[in-house]
Amino acid sequence: MGIKSYEKDGKTLYQVYVNARSKQDRTIRVQRTVSDLESLALARREENRINQELGKKLMELEGRCDSWETVIERWKVEAVNGPLGEYNPATIADHYSSLFRWTHDWVKRVASEIGKADGRNLVKKMMAAEKSVSFIKKVKNTVNVVYNFGIEEGMIKGITTSPVYGIKLHHKAEKVPDILTIEEIKKFLYEAKRLEHPWYPIWASALLTGMRTGELYALEWTDVDFESNNIRVSKSYNKRTDEIKSTKAGYWRNVPMSPELKMLFLSFDRNTTRVLPRFSEWQRGEQALVLKAFLAGVGLPVVKFHALRACFATQLLAKGTPAAIVMKICGWRDLKTMEFYVRVAGVDEKGATDCLKILPSEVEVMGNVVSLFGMKT
Hints:
The protein is mainly α. The chain is 48% helix and 11% strand. The strands form three sheets. Strands 1-2-3 form a three-stranded antiparallel beta sheet, covered by helices on one side. The chain has a three-stranded antiparallel beta sheet with strand order 4-5-8. The termini are far apart.
């Protein structure tokens, strides 16, 4: 491999010869010669071009020239057909669209050529789009899963890790969550009932049960036991697939029915299958828009629909309900999620500073003032 010069018709010309052999299989070899190049600079550029071309040719001959797009498509087929485990159709669709959305500049490239620099650029792109750390982690995990699938299936050879493996993320300062105080909750429900807002039953139920929006949508009267004052939460509505499925955690749980909630439910029409009214906005997943518009209209802080679940949890914790019980009622498996709401409620810190008594009393201060005046006299 190299560049050499020669004379032809009184001119100095250059010849490039490149020979490449596979490191995977030494019997695989490719070579190319280009002659009559008119300058050394042109010869060097041609040498680089040929090296890249032959590199791809070698991978093709080794059977590791699948593009990133091919790997993604193959993963989708395997995921849909089931061999990769229990993948929800919505999860497959999310992963698939996420990969094409964020790695669209990789899709036509040879998957084994996508390196760490590409992985870092992907993370930088998501950070520039102001995506959260949790979102970036989710995309990273998706890339890892699909790229590792390509390695295991022999579609990507000569590579042992994905382009985003090991890339560290710098955590942004944690935001205090937007939730309502107990006084704001009371005003919210008072105004909703006074104005006879059609969503009042849904909002009140969310604040008294901590159930997710899909779980409330799927709630039926057969799930409500007025004798034991219990609600069995075993299913949820998925708006993407327009079907009733299991809960997010995949298991059923019980939510105790408070006296207020029982009275609320008893006031509903029980000649229907479902407990709560179903509006078109709710079916389209626009429950947050309805809530935000109402809160803004009555002069309250604007929060997401999911924040009603957080309001429920933090109020229980603030009233002394053990964290383990709240975790069980809300259906959280992740201790980190529970610890977050414990911090929001401030139950661990409550009363910790009561022992600090360092400020002087008014009596002590006034006594010293009188003494000073007496000394001057």
